[in-house]
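Problem 12. The chain below contains 362 residues. Write out its predicted structure in token notation.
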Amino acid sequence: MSTVRIVEQKDYELDTLKEKLLEVLDWLNFNEIKDKKIVVFFDNILPNINLLKALNNILVDKGAKTVEFGTSIILPNQNELWPLFEAQGLKFHDFRNEPYEEFEVDLKAKKTQHFLGYQILSPGQYQMEKSFEKSDVFKVRTLKKVFIPETVAESDYIVPVVKLKDSPVSKIGGFLNSLLYLVPTNLRSEIFLKILSAKFGDALLDVYGVIKNSILFGVVDAVEGELTNSEEDKFGLLMSSKDLLALDSVISVLIGFRSSDIETNKLGSIYDLGHGLLKEVVIDGIDFLKLRKELVRKMNFSKFYERKSFPTIREQDREFDYLGLYCPTGAIEKLNSKYSINKSKCIKCNFCIELAPKLFNT
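Solution.
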């Protein structure tokens, strides 16, 4: 299990940001960073400078030897980015224009049970999944080599910062997808080409596997989100974890997906690279179910949920034990051998109906 910490922070005021970052990182052993070189990379074109400055101040105060910042997401006319960092005393790197170091991809990936919850499949599907689990397919790497910016490769620790987005881990965004902005253009193109062979997620995980042991922690900036780009789009949240897959899992569920919908979440758990499924994550610091409902209502696609009704059970069946593994909010409950749908938890995604329609009134 991995832990994700979530705290509330309503604005980008520097002093309170530092206070809340210390709170969201209170699980971290800061003795680890004394006299260490740390690189922070971000996936937002114009990150909030106060957030990065607060993060810099904390790491320096706790004994880090150097803290530097970098990204590859820079618009051609974005000349103000360098002076913005320099004015705050922060060292900035444009990863597009610096040397890269070459790394071999590690083939020693531990296998775990393939596709959690396979018991609810048909007998034929079950046998196919079990055969796939026993095969050597997971021993075959997708990328032969990974190239990482020299600044990142020579650092002791990496701290990625991502912005909460409308679809952060579905197609582009989130922590694992943000690694696309850490590698050079030719490798990025190779990773995108893997979509044609359904190996896009595997390729991203190859990159993650190279840097995983250098990750100090990841930070999700949702003080002001980017879901609707409106005045109401202020979420007032900071999140952190050492496990980037766990953070991607929580982000994906917060914005209306199931964690298993995201390929890298699911495969990451299988490859034993982290905890990419929500059932494997401990969420600390806030009422997660309430938060999820509030965020889903702000989605551009929130009307999709409004059109659906609460699931109602037609007949009792032990298959609900397995359906419960897939419910993102734990709305399927069991009491005295009877199953029910808790409407205070249900967000009407109707995924349970998709999996077992015969058990529900439709």
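Discussion. The longest strand covers residues 157-165. Students who got a different answer should revisit the alignment rule from Section 12.3.
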